[in-house]
Write a structure and sequence with these properties.
Blueprint (H helix, E strand, L loop, with lengths): L20 H20 L5 H15 L4 H35 L2 H11 L6 H13 L4 H19 L3 H18 L4 H10 L3 H30 L17 H4 L13 H24 L6 H9 L2 H20 L3 H10 L5 H20 L1 H12 L3 H16 L2 H12 L8 H14 L9 H10 L3 H27 L3
Helix pairs in contact: 1-2, 2-3, 2-15, 3-8, 3-13, 3-14, 3-15, 4-5, 4-11, 5-6, 5-7, 5-9, 6-7, 6-20, 7-9, 7-19, 7-21, 8-15, 8-18, 8-19, 9-11, 9-19, 9-21, 11-12, 11-13, 15-18, 17-18, 17-19, 18-19, 19-21
Length: about 475
Amino acid sequence: MHFSPSTPSLATAAVQPSGGDAQLIIAALAGIAVIIVLITWLKVHPFLALTIGSLGVGIGAGLAPGDAVTSFGAGFGATMTSVGILVGLGAMFGKLLVDSGGADRIVDNLVARSSPRSLPWTMALIGALIGLPMFFEVGVVLLVPVVILVARRTKTPIMRIAIPALAGLSVMHGLVPPHPGPLVAVTTLGANLGLTIALGVALAIPTVIIAGPLFGRIAARWVPIPAPALFDAPRDDSSQALTGSAAVAAPGRRPSFAVAVAGVLLPVALMLLRAVWDAVEPEATGGIKGFFDFLGTPMIALGIAVVYGMVFFARSAGMSRDDVQSSVSSALPAIAGILLIVGAGGGFKQVLIDTGIGTLIANAISDSGVSVILVAWFVAALVRVATGSATVATVTAAGILAPVTAHLASGEVSLVVLAIGAGSLFLSHVNDAGFWLIKEYLGLSVGQTLKSWTVMECLISVVGLAGALLLGLVI
């Protein structure tokens, strides 16, 4: 996908630059460098690093200090308004799914129906289903005990089980909203959420297959180790058995497989239905279309999923009202840091726009003739390798690319979102908390983690980029 020669100049709709081109470029490069140094060397929290870097970019680019603060605050507030509610609702739903035993039920049913040959494929499906409504760290904590127990009971090499499950989880985390990274990219770039979900799922399927079951066979040869001796206690029938969570389900009671899966897929189905209806009747308003537009609004779709969980998950699991309240409330403190990072990323984007740096970058990309999908992937991958954070990489890249997508078609903008998501997963190494989480859980050495987890993440990133580029030829 390239900019058409007939595309109007992006500068015409842009704000007046706050300084000369050289000043803007230096300010942008220095600001990004400050963010990276603060996070990687000084170990400053990404929220503070993004805040300091954003204000530095604004002042360095010629904005008055007060105007830089105003610009950052406006971007922060707008992003939190559009994304913060969704992240909070998603966290609540994920916690209800875990605490009621619904996630456990999904795992049990899929594993019980799998032969040894199909088990890696089943684990990839489990990773994707569990990863769809949950944050990455929560998904890892949920999946790793399952992976270890399944590998020990079936006497299957641990990498044949672990890599497919982790691939399913990681792909959903990077490519499919409502995860915070893809969601903030959708909002920042003005992409159609339903269309982005549809394209993300279509891209996720081959990506999970290649980086999961297929690469898992190779990883099992590269890292031929047994499953670690963890989680060996005999499991009972409660939802605490595999997850290790502070589940509050009554002993022996969990949601059925159908109830659990329906809850996971409900918000996705509502948002996709809205996107389909928009494509079929783009000009229609009110009536049935208006009803589905309302239900498919991300906040409403996720809110319905939370209510569904509070009713059907809780009733199936024998949870009291106090149990439900405790489960929902305990989901929120864990996401406070993520919300601040996402909001600061929105502030950074607004500073880039208000200084004119974003327009300068957009015009440079337009004149270069390089695919904006490739540029988006490269920027996100660069920040990811430097900072170790997929979320920081996504929000930073989305802020930089926002002016570039202003005149692109809806499908093209969605592909840019997916390219950023793919780039944000590239080359997980020693500065990534996820790297150490996988290493310690699976009992790997640093070298073994690089040969398995890191290679898997690179495969996901590169296959995701290739898929986005191929889709760009027809969209």
